[in-house]
Amino acid sequence: MEPASAQPCQECPWRIANRGRSHPDQAPYTDDWLTTKWRRVSQDGTAFACHLFDAGALHYSDDLKEAGFKKPTDIGARKECAGMVAMVRRELETVIASPSFEEYQQSRPYGLSRQALDYFGARLNGEIGPAFKPSDYIDMAEILDMHDVVKPGSMAWTYDTTFLNNLNGLITTLMPELRECGCTVCTEHRTVHEMLPLRTAENLDVTVDADLHPLLLAMASAGIRTTASCINIREAITKLSPDMLGPLMNLSDPATINYGPVLRRHAAFIELRNDTDPEKLFLAAAEKTPGIDINHQNSRSQMIFLRGHLPILAQLAALTAQHLAPKPAPRKPAKKKRKGNR
Questions:
Q1: Residue 47's Cα: distance from chain center in Å?
Q2: In terms of domain of life, where is this protein from (predicted)?
Q3: Does the pTM of the predicted model rise above 0.90?
Q4: Cα(278)–Cα(36) distance, rounded to whole angstroms?
């Protein structure tokens, strides 16, 4: 990442003037979005890129153009966000002016954690990269103070992204009625992949990719509860919502279930529950199959595979059903009749 510019861009989310600004993607500029991003920087100690120099990960659509947002520039590298650097500099200066770090934290509860302080201190001292270079040409009166934004006790501040992802996965797993997604990739999916109706193991009537239908039907028959699937999600995203491709491919946290590995492999995926005997048996067998990757996160798992794996996975589902099917009681041999005396 390259050092930040001398001035934050006019679209910088950390400018006071942009707080609450209308955006086609809805989330940016909202207080929850600002809080989530600031939490990662101020608590975990991470760098934050300027969106105008992040063309490889962010999209630019006709909606953004019509709304007056500039197109991101590809400079072969990312630039750190000048607005975020200014906010961090404010906190560092406050730490230095405080009698102790503990008193700083008491006066600035939404400021830097010890971990973040060590991180930015090491960057300032040149011990680690990228170089941290605050600008002397920024009017701090124009830059947000997150103590005016963060809502005490809000989920966006209290919990990190990994926890919220885990919580969302758990809720949608336990409450199937909340699973339906309203994004373009889901609502317009049938324009890319042929789809067929399916009744799941939870007795939900859904539509699934026709190529996956035989496998999903076999899994449902075995009592395996599936929650999401696609034969080639990269193909669907590329055609229906290409702006999502970069950000989703950059999600590769092994501690969470995400689309990063699926997109990079141009693979199929199925998400399923993992806490019943059929599900455990099926996943254990699938995990031993070369070329099939299984990621687990709490009570759900994600299975990543290629089209060539479909027959063997369907066979594993059928074997799971057979293995766990009730066995008929053995028939007792008929008693031989004793011959009487004549």
A1: 19
A2: Bacteria
A3: no
A4: 38
